Each structure stands twice: as C-alpha cells, then as structure tokens.
C-alpha cells in the first residue's frame, strides 16, 4: 500500500496553521506542550475501496497527493468519514481551500514530525479484501481475529463524542485539567481523547499533565468544586461509554479536574 511522501505531509502542515481544517475548530495538530502529534491525515477521496468517497478511476499517486489530503483533529476526521453524504468531495475541497488560504505561509515541520503523521495511516493493511487495522496492537501478529489477554483499549465512538459535545454546548463553558497516569500510553491516549472532546464543547483546558498517583485511581475520577448541570452530564456520560467514573467535590477549586487512571 502506498503512502503520502514526507514532502507532501510537510507541505500540508505548512498551510495548516497547526489547526484542524474543520471550520471553526481550534484543536492543534501538534500539542504545544508535549509536541505529540494528534492530527490525522484525511483523504478527500478514500484510499481504500470500502472507504468514503472512493473513486475507482483515481490512481494511487493521486490518492496520496497534496490535492487529495487535509489534516484534521481525531474527532473531525471521524465526523467527515462517518457522514460522506454531508461531507462530499466538493465540500471537503472547499473546506481545504479556505483553510489553507487562511494559513498559507507557515513553516514545514521536521522529518520526525512528518513521520508521526504518517504513522496514522501506515498501521493499516489489506488481506483478502478486508481492511485490518492494527493501531495500538498488543502483539506482533496480525490476523482476522486476535484474542489478547491484558489491558484493553478504552475507546469512545464519534457518535458518543458528538452527543456529549451537543449537550455540553447548552451550558456555560468550564475550565478543566486532565491528569493521566505517568508511563501508561493507553491512559494518556484516553486523557487526550477526553481533552479533545471537551475542547470541542467549548471548555478551556490547561493541558494534560502526568503524575504518579498515591492511591492509584482506576478508570476516570472527576473532581469538581460545586455541582453543575454540565458536570453531572459529563459524569453520567462517562458511565454510559463504559469508563466507570467516580465523582468527588473538591473544596476551593475553580476548575474541574479529570484524573484518568489505568483500565479497570
């Protein structure tokens, strides 16, 4: 399977403004503090026959060309691919053109940064017509069915994320902090996903921190100074998506703290 060239990825980032291309989205493609690449390479016309907006007449070279690609945050990457009837080829080309016109003249990233973007799409392969996706795979094998024993990934679907964003936007925005268990990649990835979702809802974050906890939390712990409707919505939603939350009141605090511990 072919991939975009590093030159193409660097060009894409240079006209991105380090921001998701989705209209009015302010989520950075590279986290300013950790320098971790969170942005996704999105194909306007799908790379694979089973993907949205696939064009069988398009060459592999054109599929991975600058003109067919744009950079988005993880949430909006899933939004456009989950609703191809709304996000047509012509609409995505318009989104790309407007965003790049506003952000033209930026600097190209390093090779290391470009390679991190590339990792988002090189972890897929095709076997007998089926797409097998191996992101965060827990072993060295790839097969149609793998049973792993050990910590499993905690995932949030785009539909669940959008449902929470829609509800939280009905209430005043909040300030929040996210703390993840240090040295646990799965925990950090989940913390990062929660941060992206809440930012889309209009909440303000001071970034993700990592810590070694005393009395190690399991799942997600939400600490807040006072009860508010939006915080109750968040707490209930965490339970609905299977994150088994706990809630506590934290005296004299002006922000919400979300502590993400290891998988339960």
Characterize the structure shown.
The protein is α/β, with parallel strands linked by helices. It folds into 2 domains: 6-133, no CATH class; 158-260, 2-Layer Sandwich (Alpha-Beta Plaits). The protein is 33% helix and 17% strand. The protein contains 8 helices and 9 strands. It has a 5-stranded mixed β-sheet, covered by helices on one side. Strand 7 (220-224), helix 8 (229-240) and strand 8 form a beta-alpha-beta unit. It is elongated, with a radius of gyration of 19 Å.
Spell out the blueprint of helices and strands.
Layout: H1 6-14, E1 40-43, H2 60-63, E2 69-72, H3 74-82, H4 89-102, H5 111-122, E3 124-127, E4 130-133, H6 158-168, E5 175-181, H7 185-200, E6 204-211, E7 220-224, H8 229-240, E8 245-249, E9 256-260
Helix pairs in contact: 1-5
Largest sheet: 5 strands, mixed
Structural class assignment: alpha/beta
Number of extended strands: 9
* Average pLDDT score: 80
Summarize the structure.
By secondary structure, the chain is α/β, with parallel strands linked by helices. It contains eight helices and nine strands.
What attributes does this structure have?
264 residues, alpha/beta, Alpha-Beta Plaits, 2 domains, five-stranded mixed sheet, two-stranded antiparallel sheet, 8 helices, 33% helix, elongated
């Amino acid at each position: 399977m072919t991939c975009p060239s590093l030159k193409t990825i660097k060009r894409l980032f240079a006209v991105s403004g380090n921001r998701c291309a989705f209209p009015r989205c302010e989520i950075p493609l590279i986290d300013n503090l950790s320098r971790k690449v969170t942005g996704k390479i999105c194909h306007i016309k799908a790379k694979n026959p089973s993907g949205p907006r696939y064009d069988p007449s398009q060459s592999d070279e054109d599929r991975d060309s600058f003109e067919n690609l744009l950079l988005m945050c993880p949430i909006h990457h899933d939004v456009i691919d989950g609703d191809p009837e709304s996000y047509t080829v012509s609409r995505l080309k318009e989104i790309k053109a407007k965003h790049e016109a506003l952000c033209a003249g930026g600097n190209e990233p390093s090779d290391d940064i470009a390679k991190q973007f590339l990792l988002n799409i090189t972890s897929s392969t095709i076997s007998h017509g089926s797409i097998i996706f191996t992101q965060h795979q827990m072993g060295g094998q790839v097969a149609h069915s793998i049973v792993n024993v050990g910590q499993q990934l905690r995932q949030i679907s785009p539909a669940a994320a959008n449902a929470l964003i829609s509800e939280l936007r009905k209430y005043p925005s909040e300030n929040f902090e996210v703390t993840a268990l240090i040295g646990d990649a799965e925990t950090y990835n989940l913390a990062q996903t929660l941060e992206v979702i809440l930012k889309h809802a209009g909440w303000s974050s001071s970034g993700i921190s990592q810590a070694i906890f005393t009395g190690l939390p399991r799942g997600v712990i939400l600490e807040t100074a006072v009860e508010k409707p939006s915080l109750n919505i968040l707490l209930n939603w965490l339970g609905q998506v299977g994150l088994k939350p706990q809630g506590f009141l934290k005296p004299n605090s002006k922000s919400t703290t979300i502590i993400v511990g290891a998988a339960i």
